[in-house]
Design a protein that fits this description.
The protein is an alpha/beta fold. The protein contains ten helices and twelve strands. Helix 8 crosses helix 10. The chain is globular.
């Protein structure tokens, strides 16, 4: 984890202009309007927001820029957008629509030079690589999965994280496929392995259900924690999570009108 205060990042998984949530990228259910939820999460103290078009890659289409524009219109915190990014032009379109950073996943695995091209065109600070990883069935470690978890690549997740950093990625969004939507906690072993292998910030994703889960991820080396279900289902607000983390000894970035020591 970097020396900066850790970030709390609500995530909006979007399909057909609506926020959805599922388990292991399947069984998606409606969770609300992207712009409305974005504004609410910023008001609660979200440090950044991630919008992922979860059906863009499986359906072979580009990310819906109109959703990005709608979210940007109500948002002043940093916005990362991913899903359906296959080329530099896709990233440019999302940045033009209001994204601050663009995340690539499946296309980068298929053609790693996309990472180089995005970093060269927009800078490492705008280039995020999403890594979806699941445990190998036949040996220790984790493999990269793509196409919303449908394709098992056999690619070692730690080796891939090192490669994307070398190619210019400025941040890694690391999702545990095994834990996604399960509310069983982040895969701290996976987080520790990736965080210790790279020098860029790692965002923990997949499995959060409590402040204790978030604290465990941050203590494992993550620079930020991403969560969806706990916020969408009303279990807690971002401000609630930050207050609970403080009681666990982790000072986050303050919420407006609140102070932390």
């Amino acid at each position: 984890m970097t020396g900066l205060a850790p970030r709390i990042i609500p995530c909006l998984d979007v399909r057909d202009g609506r926020v959805v949530k599922g388990i292991q990228f399947q069984g998606l259910r409606d969770a609300g309007d992207p712009a409305g939820l974005a504004a609410a999460y910023e008001a609660q103290g979200g440090d950044e927001l991630v919008v992922l078009d979860v059906s863009a890659t499986p359906e072979g289409r580009a990310n819906a820029a109109d959703t990005v524009r709608a979210v940007r219109a109500v948002l002043s915190i940093p916005l990362t957008v991913g899903g359906g990014v296959r080329a530099v032009d896709d990233a440019r379109r999302l940045l033009d629509a209001g994204a601050d950073k663009v995340a690539a996943n499946t296309a980068a695995v298929a053609d790693p030079s996309l990472v180089d091209a995005m970093a060269a065109e927009f800078g490492s600070q705008c280039t995020v690589i999403s890594i979806d990883a699941r445990a190998f069935d036949d040996r220790p470690g984790w493999e990269v999965v793509t196409r919303s978890g449908k394709n098992r690549t056999g690619l070692d997740a730690i080796a891939w994280a090192r490669e994307v950093e070398r190619r210019g990625a400025g941040e890694i969004l690391l999702t545990s496929w095994d834990r996604d939507g399960t509310r069983s906690g982040y895969d701290v072993d996976l987080l520790a392995a990736i965080s210790s292998a790279v020098n860029v910030p790692v965002i923990a994703s997949g499995g959060a259900a409590s402040a204790a889960h978030c604290a465990a991820a941050l203590n494992a080396g993550a620079s930020a924690v991403l969560a969806a279900s706990i916020f969408h289902d009303g279990d807690m607000t971002v401000a609630d999570l930050k207050r609970e983390l403080l009681t666990l000894g982790i000072a986050t970035r303050p919420v407006d009108n609140e102070t932390q020591p």
